[in-house]
Amino acid sequence: MEKLYINCDARKYLGGIIDKKTFEVYFLDMLQVKENTFNWVIRENSNNEFIGLISLHPSHDGTCTEVSYQLLPKWWGNGFATEAVNSVIHFAFTELNLLILIAETQVLNLSSRRLLEKLGMKLAKKVKRFGAEQAIYRIERNSHVRN
Questions:
Q1: What's the confidence (pLDDT) of residue 146?
Q2: For the chain, is the Cβ count within 10 Å smaller at the N or the C terminus?
Q3: 73, 116, 146 from 92: Cα distances, Å
């Protein structure tokens, strides 16, 4: 997992790379059981190789649940993010009975925006956060069709 947090390309739209000490804090935080928070590792089926991370957690404003994801660049463009995000959306609506799910990505992250739109998420608003313009996407349970 540390490879993900020190990869310049993977962290381009996620605030940049982090140092080892900060990674250790993040990692320990991920291991903590928290209400309304789920963290998963994404792995390649045939050899169990680490691909990335995906999570459900309270949104920054605390009003919704957000899906977040990050993958190592080696795995980009192969459908892994689409499959993982779609599965987590399905989990959020069927297992957690959520009504709404959001995702936040930088406006400049066109690949992430296309992925969210492909899965049926709609641009709800734009906000300035983390020193950049962010696009907040939203999907409602009754509009999600599992691919």
A1: 58
A2: C
A3: 26, 15, 12
29-59 pLDDT, tens digit per residue, is 777 777 889 999 999 999 999 999 999 999 9
d(CA 71, CA 76): 7
CA distance 12 to 54: 17
Count Cα neighbours of 122 within 13 Å in the Cβ-side half-sphere.
7
pLDDT, tens digit, 9 for 90 and up, residues 85-108: 999 999 999 999 999 999 999 999
Task: For residue 137, count other CB atoms closer than 10 A to its CB.
Answer: 23
Given pLDDT bands bounded at 50, 70 and 90, which one contains residue 16? low
3-state secondary structure of 42: strand
Residues ≥6 apart with Cβ < 8 Å to 23 = 1, 2, 5, 6
The C-alpha atoms of residue 30 and residue 23 are separated, in whole angstroms, by: 10
Strands 50-58 and 100-106: unpaired
SS3 assignment, position 55: strand
